[in-house]
Design brief:
The chain has 146 residues and is α+β, with helices and mostly antiparallel strands. The chain has four helices and seven strands.
Length: 146
């Protein structure tokens, strides 16, 4: 499985809206987005420099996006938001490995945040050796050091 992680473009708006307006996808994140909120999110998080989110493609198909941005001075936050048809196939795990390698190659620690009910994310954090740090603003914070 070979993912292509790329900077988002304006052309990603429709696909991103399909993802972020899906109540099942957004269950543990936020209320589903409107098209206007999706457009603002794309501008502020995907088209900025450096981007905080990037498109994740597999065999030329957009599977969702990855989160990768500075969390604090010594670490980056990683995450992923995938279309439901890609859940349960090991894609989040594969994307996690890619982002851990990227962070470690730049000498950074890695952080994953999630709500306590988000068992799939907690499972991946534990699978890759992340250590529970604390609950901050209602989110569990897991950290992995190089």
């Amino acid at each position: 499985m070979e993912f292509n992680i790329r900077k988002m473009t304006e052309d990603d708006l429709v696909a991103l809206y399909r993802l972020l307006s899906d109540a099942q996808v957004m269950k543990y994140l936020e209320p589903p987005y409107t098209k206007e909120k999706t457009e603002c999110f794309l501008q502020e998080a995907g088209l900025c420099d450096p981007p905080r989110i990037c498109a994740a493609e597999l065999d030329g198909c957009l599977t969702g996006y990855v989160i990768y941005h500075d969390y604090d001075e010594r670490s980056v936050e990683i995450g992923w938001v995938l279309y439901p048809e890609y859940w349960g196939r090991g894609y989040a795990s594969a994307l996690t490995q890619i982002m851990i390698r990227k962070a470690f190659s730049s000498g950074k620690e890695v952080v994953i945040e999630c709500v306590p009910q988000q068992e799939a994310t907690r499972h991946i954090a534990r699978k890759y050796g992340f250590t529970f740090q604390a609950v901050t603003d209602g989110l569990e914070v897991y950290r992995l050091r190089p």
